[in-house]
Amino acid sequence: MDFYGQFQKKLRACKSYLDKNVFLTLCYHEIRVTFGSLLQKAWIITVLFFALLFVTGERNLAAISILLVFFVFFGSIIALVVSSSSISGEIGGIADSLLSKSVKRWEYLLSKFVSHIIVVLTVYFSILVVMIGILWNFKFLPDDLNYENLFFIVLLVGLGLVFFSSIGVLFSSVFSKTIFSLLASITVWFLFVFMFATTEWEFLYSPVEILHNFALILEGLWDVDYWKILLFYIGSPFVFFAVSLIFFYQRDL
Amino acid sequence: MEAVIKTESLTKIFSQKTIAVNDLYMDVPKNSIYGFLGPNGSGKTTTIKLLLGLLKPSAGSVYVFGNPMGMDSANMRRKIGYLPTNPIFPDKMTPITYLDFIGKIFGIPKAIRIPRIAELIRSVDLLPLSSSEIRKFSTGEITRVGIAACLINNPELLIMDEPTLGLDPIGRSSTAKLITELGSREEKTIFVSSHILTDIDRFCTHIGIINNGKLVFNGTIPDVKKLIRTNTVELHVEGDAAAYVRKVKAVPHVVDVNYFRHVIRISIDGPQNYTGALLRIFKELSEADLELISFNSGSENLEEAFLNLLEEEKSYGFLRAISKKA
User: Which of A94, A99, A253 sits opposite B90 (nearest CB)?
Assistant: First the structure.
């Protein structure tokens, strides 16, 4: 069999595997449902509108920093609200239906985490990268801009959104009623974002800290251990997933 | 006969307050249509959720296909089809997309899945609605989607929780026919829970009666009917029955004959003489100048059997703590 034939054969086998894989099916379904929700659509339209407004208004680096502020304050809330009903909203209905079939609890839970993270990052990165691209294309950005540091800031804020999205799913798996998981999630937002935005307090792991030190990070002058922040934001979803597993496996449906 | 479902001392207590299922010993034989009967709030749905691994038992165990059922027994659930009461479906899905989604969950390859979906949609008469959103369907249409979904993996065991609830008489009749067909022709084991006695009587071969979480009866339909056999027979006749009534009173083992408005109610002294006396009664009828419109025997009344069993179970009082199995 020639190379093309072998490639076709492998592609068919791969497609067949993906087609029957429970976890991927659940993820794809959840992503479709999340993108299809009214709140998510409203959020995407709103953020696109403001992104265009900032870019056309500021036409410099400030547009990106304003957009990042917008994502930290509003994007985090939206990520929390959307994810806090992901499991509690389905208990007694769709969750029962799925878990009464050949779906394991950890597959169901992991698909929730992964799909919400994918959705939040897709919206965030696609808008930000396009805006940065527009600004760069029309030469609105300074020539001496350190793009590596800029994308590092973008990455940190993105990881912050992943943190909030994961915590929403965690509370959704712990609490049986969506209202309680929403309240718990909003409390976290209040402590991690609102408190540090409106007071003089500092907390290294708050996304607000990244915004406060935007200029310093851009210049490479922020004197902190970046690995700690990265570990916190990357490790948190794994910890939340582990905690969710413990609670979800004790839970009656 | 090998049991597809077996429970041993199955108990479920919610929040240390409510005993939903109480020391349940149940056997569901292979290829049977097992009716799980009980009043509202008796523990039927909780039992079903325990059978599927959706709830963790407080005590006891559940065996399905000879293996213990747990929360992650996904491979065992591949052989089970489940129809819940009032099934809920994801928003904005049509029967085709939903069945395709469920088919993928069950790991059915595309080449088998697509023709199966088409066949199921046609079988449940949803062809005109196959591309409409399920959320706009009526109760009967939703149940039909649920039935299609529980059959997509061609399961060996079907668990149906109140499948005829909310259906009109045509829907109920279709569902009953489907259950009978699946049980007899397809040789599936079917576990149906209901509080509608006539449905259970119509298509079940075995029955389990649950009350307040406790199984009060576990056996075949004839067995349960034997329990309440009142040794009476009612004949609806047309014509002058006075002479016939006098002859029936002379039949050995007949203790009482009551004739009112074309209905002759005959009581026999005991179950051991029931068959013999009945033969004589019908022999006399064949020689009488009467037309038999219909007849009933007390043993056909499942509703009476059900109510009598509940009363009897209650009357045991503290003895219920000793008796383990129904």
Answer: A94
Locate the chain A residue with the closest alpha carbon to B109.
A20
Identify the helix (H) or strand (E) that includes residue B179: helix B169-184
Instruction: Name, in order, each residue with C-beta under 8 angstroms of A80's C-beta and a sequence gap of 6 or more.
Output: A164, A165, A167, A168, A182, A185, A186, A188, A189
Residues of B with Cβ-Cβ distance to A253 under 8 angstroms: 49, 54-55
Query: Which among A25, A93, A249 has the least Cβ separation from residue B105?
Result: A25
Please classify residue B112 by burial: count the beta carbons closer than 10 Å to its beta carbon, then call 0-12 exposed, 13-18 middle and 19+ buried. exposed
> What is the spatial distance between Cα A29 and Cα B89, in angstroms, rounded to a whole number?
13
Q: What is the pLDDT of residues A189-225, one digit of tens each?
A: 988 888 777 777 777 778 888 888 888 888 888 888 8
Choose among B161, B152, B157: nearest CA to B187.
B157
Q: Is A80 exposed, middle or buried (0-12, 13-18, 19+ CB in 10 A)?
A: buried
Query: In the structure, what pLDDT confidence band is assigned to residue B134 with cuts at 50, 70 and 90?
Result: very high
A216-230 per-residue burial string, b: 16 or more CB within 10 A, e: under 16:
ebbeeebeeeeeebe
- Distance in angstroms (rounded) separating the CA atoms of residues B300 and B229: 8
Residue B146: closest C-alpha in chain A: A97
Label residue A16 by pLDDT band (50, 70, 90).
confident
- Identify the pLDDT of residue B35: 92
Alpha carbons B326 and B313: distance in angstroms, whole number = 10
Q: Tell me: ipTM over 0.90.
A: no
> pLDDT for B235-294, tens place per residue?
899 988 889 999 999 998 888 888 888 888 888 887 788 888 889 999 999 998 889 998
CB-nearest to B105 from A22, A93, A249 is A22
What pTM does this model have?
0.82
Is residue B299 over pLDDT 80?
no
Domains of chain B: 3-220 (3.40.50.300), 232-296 (3.30.70.100)
Q: What is the pLDDT of residue B98?
A: 95
Tokens representing B89 are 């479906």
Q: How far apart are CA B110 and CA B210, in angstroms?
A: 42
> What would the two tokens of residue B258 be?
């009551």
Closest by Cα among B29, B20, B36 to B214: B20
Which residues of chain B are within 8 Å of residue A36 when distances are taken between CB atoms? Answer: 91-92
Tokens read off for B108: 């059915």
